[in-house]
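Revision sheet: structure tokens.
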Amino acid sequence: MSAAVRVERLTVAYRGRPAISGVDLAIDAGERVALVGPNGAGKSTLLRAVSGLVEPAAGTVELAGVPIGGLDRWAVARRLAVVPQLPSLPFSTTVEQVVALGRLPHEHPVRGLRPADRAAVAGAIERVGVGHLLGRDARELSLGERQLVLLAMAVAQASPVLVLDEPTVHLDLRHQVEVMELLVDLNERDGTTVIAVLHDVGLAARFFPRIVVLDGGRIAADGPHAEALTPERIREVFGVDPELVRLPVRTTGSPIR
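Predicted:
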């Protein structure tokens, strides 16, 4: 069976300077994977390459065994939904209209939204908990509220792979935890493959079974948090005292949730 996402020998450069170099990574359908690392490590660049938003200088990206370069944007969107780090909206639009954009890859080209599409939009609004924002201009929302609306749009998109770039960066503590729990639910109940860039290694370790550590544009570690985020690696990659980093402790036979 093909991996949901596979990159091989991937190099992406900006102005001739590599942001990631020679990266190999395979993520199977149904996995929940966090990408962590210091600023400039290449996390967001890797996510953008997986999403088809940047052109690799070398290497390949495949979605479910299909090279991403051979897919048009709607075909990519049916396979993969993206929640960006810094949401911006160029024109006035209501919250429900933003969420409905998630159905564009699926809607009929002439008839527009069908009943199934409208049901998907309503379900996403309820699942993410943004119903109290309906009717408001999305540009007037706080950054955290806007982030939740874009997450609802991605949920409405119902693609088998969901990638998120710092989904909790603008959220307060309660909403951070709620978003992490939603991602776990999407993964475990719906079977959605979830790939998220996170700065908070504590959140990553608590909610993601697999941690990929990037450093200097390369993968420094890949595995469960107890293997990927050892004290030595935290000191080496992040340059901080590992005693200052609070990670969950797994008790025998109990999953981290």
